Amino acid sequence: MLIEPPEKAPEISVTRQPVYNESAETFGYELLFRHSDAEFSSLDHSDPESSQIIANVFMEIGLKLLVGDKPAFINLPHGFIREQQSIPFAKDKFILQVAASGAMDDALIAAIGELHAQGFSIALDELVMDANKQALLGYSDMIKLDISGYSDNELADYCVQLQEANRLLLAKRVDSQDDFERCKSLGFRYFQGSFLSEPKVVRYKTLPTNKLLLLEILARIQDPEVELVELEELINRDVGISFKFLRLINSANFGLSKKVESLHQAMLLLGLKEIKSWVSLAALSNIDAVPQELTDMSIMRARMCKALAQKAGCEDPDAFFTVGMFSLIDAIMSKSMTSILKSLPFSDEINEALLRRKSGTAMAEALDCVIAHEQGEWHMIKFARLTAQEIRQVYIDSLEWCRGVRSQLA
Q1: For the segment 237-283, what is each residue's pLDDT rounded down to a tens digit?
Q2: What pTM did the predictor assign?
Q3: Are residues 151 and 59 in the same domain?
Q4: What integer best gives the mean pLDDT of the chain?
Q5: Taking Cα atoms as reference points, which of 296, 325, 329 lies closest to residue 403?
Q6: What is the pLDDT of residues 200-225, one digit of tens each?
Q7: What residues have CB less than 8 Å from 69, skipping those under 6 apart?
Q8: Containing domain of residue 152, as a range?
Q9: DSSP 86
Q10: Percent of the chain, pLDDT > 70?
Q11: From CA 274, how far away is CA 353, in angstroms rounded?
């Protein structure tokens, strides 16, 4: 099917939510969309044009920017399937999600079977079995279940039934580490939810050596009284941080005319205030045994918070960067945010934002906006007087920026 951009493209917002494997590594991303003031992350099952609109979004933004080399989960409306239109997506890049909780007639099920026969991977979302859905099960590769809708016993019994059909199971609304471990024990292979950003607090007397050193470095970096000489000494204590920092500074993101070979040289070119942000970012990315997505989310939050502040004309956008970057430090350190902040010399305003207290400050509101966008809570995505289109552009620009930064921190 030839895809032609509309004469006047509708304002479409997009976000992504990670799908994790059993090792908490990112397997793929579910793409969520919003059109004007109406959310259609689940899409209108009667509207065959929704997939065309989404295809236009991919043309404008680029699938590579949204998901990299990982598969994209995308909801396919029943209306589109019934029309048996050509799917404008590559078979190896997408997993097609189909809502399967309600009544489905034989014609719709047959159309889904045709997609499966063409080589598309099919994920059935909230499959509720009835007499005519046995054939549908045979056309699927994966079953998605919202675990919040089941008791422990109900979920266990249903998992046994689905595993007998030899289908992969994906749990959604996995919002705690306990949920994650329980779902793994029940045989789920993939997971969606906020469990990764929730700290798994480990009650030991001291942090492991690498985390203790990291916290010490971060505390001194953020101290407004720290001087360049001390900063250099701190960074030189960790070869990994030094290497990542210098590689980052010399990347295309900065566009410097000559190679930077030392922290001192970088400070002369960029200034101590900006250097602190970049050293902190390099330090956070250097800690061992932290899921990659957690680091990526920290970087994205940092950039998006700062970009929102800049777009809205807020004072001190670098402080917004700090709020975003440290918003997941509790999950990274496996300690409560309150205990970590006791070691970091942040201002009261930054502390309030990081503790997610409804203080009404610009920093707290920026972080709330970024997290709402991350979770696809469209009605909560607002900041200052920025329009939906401006926030959408901030998100896309931040994705592009983070992709460049991430390649230097890998």
Answers
A1: 777 888 888 888 888 777 777 888 887 788 788 887 778 888 888 88
A2: 0.85
A3: yes
A4: 84
A5: 296
A6: 655 544 555 567 777 878 888 888 88
A7: none
A8: 12-197
A9: P
A10: 87
A11: 21
CATH of the domain at 187: 3.20.20.450
93 φ, ψ to 5°? -105, -10
Which residue type occupies 270?
Answer: L
How far is residue 88 from each of residues 57, 91, 94, 207, 272, measured CA to CA in Å?
12, 9, 11, 50, 49
In 3D space, the residue among 344, 45, 390 whose CA is nearest the CA of residue 217 turns out to be 344
Q: Comparing 300 with 37, which gets the higher pLDDT?
A: 300
State the amino acid at position 240 in one-letter form.
G
Which residue is it, tokens 């995308």?
74
Contact 169, 188 (CB under 8 A): yes
Distance CA 218, CA 226 (A): 11
- Give how many domains the chain has, as a whole number: 2
State how far the Cα of 330 lies from the Cα of 298, in Å rounded to an integer.
Answer: 11
Here the tokens at position 96 are 């097609």
Alpha carbons within 13 angstroms on the beta-carbon side of residue 51 total 26
State which amino acid sits at residue 26.
T
Calpha distance 134→130 (Å, rounded):
7
Residues 264 and 387 in one domain: yes
